[in-house]
Amino acid sequence: MGQPTGVIMPRKKKLTEEQRYWAHRYEAAWHEVFWEIPEWKQMELIEDPLANGRTHKEHAKMVRLLAEDEKFKPKKDYRKIPTDTKELKKINRLS
């Protein structure tokens, strides 16, 4: 099933330089905070990334505060975020 004939889909707008700047800061902050929280909280975030529980809210708040902190210097590269709990446990054991 596709789009009806004759319907023109709008183009995605390109991000502005400011939007890219903030996206990078928030992503870097997300990674930074993720690796600082306890493993059980990391597991909650990975097991149900779309949840809206206490751990997710605390993580989001810490990310926002860090990203908006003028002293925060985002890194260019991030540690890989695991996609399942087995991988996370393996990474945390190696750290």
How does this structure look, described?
The chain has 4 helices and no strands. The N and C termini lie far apart (48 Å). The longest helix is centred in the N-terminal third of the chain and has 20 residues. The chain has one domain. Helix 1 crosses helix 3. The protein has 95 residues and is mainly alpha-helical.
What oligomeric arrangement do these chains adopt? single chain
Low-pLDDT regions: none
Helix count? 4
How far is the N terminus from the C terminus?
Answer: 48 Å
Structural class label: mainly alpha
Task: Report the sheet with the most strands, covering strand number, pairing sense and barrel closure.
Answer: none
Beta percentage is under 5%
Average pLDDT, rounded to a whole number, is: 86
Radius of gyration, CA atoms, in whole angstroms? 18 Å
- Total beta-strand segments: 0
Describe the structure concisely.
The chain has 4 helices and no strands. The chain is an all-alpha fold and 95 residues long. The chain has one domain (17-94).
Keywords:
95 residues; mainly alpha
Question: Helix and strand layout, with pairings?
Answer:
Layout: H1 17-36, H2 39-47, H3 54-67, H4 85-94
